[in-house]
Amino acid sequence: MTTDFRQGRPEDRARVTQFLKEIFHSTGAEPSLDPRQMQWKYEEEQSATPHAWSCRNFLLERDGAIIAHAGVWPARMILEGKQYPGARLIDWAADHNAPGAGVSLLQKIAREEKMIYGLGGTEMTRKIFPALGFRPLSNIGYYARPLRPLRQILTHPYRMHWKAPARFVRNSWWSRSVGISVGSWSAHATAPDAHTVWPSSQTSTMAVFHRDAAGFAYLSRCPVIRSSFYQVKNNGIPVGYFFLVFVPGQARIADAWIPDRDPHSWQKLFTLAEQEARKNPDVAELTSIAGLAPAREALLACGFQAMKEEQLMVYDPKRLLPSSLAETNFQLVDDDACYLHENRPAYQT
After folding, report:
1. Which structural domains are found in the chain, ordered by start?
2. pTM
């Protein structure tokens, strides 16, 4: 039997989609397997100039049949001016009749990408990460804030559950205004190529992930979401940005940045993001994740609820990352979590 490792090609799309449907026991109706989405993820950028999220996919085949698949979502870390190439695996799946195929594929991809990041996943995935050589890198918090409790409860998948009235009362309390003033700060929807304040590492203990205008332009073309890039200004001077993604019933702060460790500045940033999200009458909930301490503190001050915390794991067999690293600005855009949804509301609160 011959096993081959290679990059996916456009003519593989139908086979890859069928393989993922079988492994994930999918109906095929999910947006993640929509032909337009598969084309956007794995084909649109292969011949273009690489950018922050130039995604590719790889196959492991045995005698011409797919036994493992993974998409490579770039996550290029920057620490004190030095870049560390890496990636997050998406659509990572292996044939149950081919033991070790998924691990083999990961190791082959890691040789090219230098390091692989892992966050969340199934319970089994979280259990096997340490056995595969993944180690904890930093903590990432998940946050959510109900904006329209009545609309939320009326569109909730479990609106007929006996706990629904209590959930409505609780979320009505959580949605109350916290009264944060943004002062001279303002947000303006704009093309990302008009922006110049991109993330940069500030200390030896804090790392950021690469961003660029072309990457956000690519995300804006994702066929299963709506999105908008906002430049944030203070007295007319650009100081940061945020990127909103809209899915059924929910808006996500998929990325946000200001080069400031002051939690009060981050509070203004998230308040502006909430104001923009509220302009869409279909949005019942606003969510975000955060790894930086001032961002996490600011989200709580802005009325967000801490839903859970997970460890960002890294497969770094050559130990390229320094041991001093303690926090990262890993965001939803560094993962397929920025666009995944089920074509119906799925709330966190």
Report:
1. 3-137 (3.40.630.30), 140-311+322-338 (3.40.630)
2. 0.94
